[in-house]
Amino acid sequence: MKTFNDQLGNTITLATPPQRIISLVPSQTELLFDLGLEERIVGITKFCVHPYHLKSTKKIIGGTKKVHLEKIKLLKPDIIIANKEENTEEIVASLQEIAPVWVSDIATIEDSLHMIAEFGKMFSVRTKAQQWIDKINYGHADFIKFMEGREPLKAAYFIWKNPYMAAGGGTFINEMLRLNKFVNIYENRGRYPEIIIQKMRIQGDPDVVFLSSEPYPFKEEDAFEVGRFTHHAKTVFVDGEMFSWYGSRLVKAFDYFKQLHNRLA
Fold first, then answer.
1. Does this model's pTM top 0.90?
2. How confident is the model at residue 197 (pLDDT cuts 50, 70, 90)?
3. Are 253 and 221 found together in one domain?
């Protein structure tokens, strides 16, 4: 028997490396696949879209906020992978009666690397995990060099409309903004504050406004509406996965960020 601590400090005990995995987190599903664990994944959420073919080969057990407990029980998982932000405490508590639940809590790149290393230990794929850690560390260091000499820009990153909501402090999105030298004007307003866009000028007047591709599908008219309440901000549609998906997606994110800066130049 081996014990492992998740990122909330909870201890789980495993007799052997899990062979039947359920993932409730899209970015962590992608990571499990990239660690070579496709055959061990038995259940995913309807939002687990990468790699795309998993939606037709694995059992869909609901969403991230609402799961089908009976479907999960029938899959007889050895472990369930969850996340503090994506899944509710109530869901996790219910799932703990079915199988061990490992919960991630990620706000920084270091948190992400820790998760990958723990997956390497739990699923006995240490070499593969270390390869991904090395790729991320290389990409991270290379991107920091790319950013040398670039001036900071004030930014607002919107994730929702009706009401408008932005990414604030303590989020992985905010960490990615910092990495890109985007100074989040809503960093001190909580994790996901509601925003009255008519007040944007007095609340920071951003140089650039990002409209994320997820979870809300912003349109051109939204960009026009938001842009009206800044002085001269650029309004840019961005790939939300690159800013919010931790794990192996980070390798692609660093290249995406370079392209983004070239668009803003």
1. yes
2. very high
3. yes
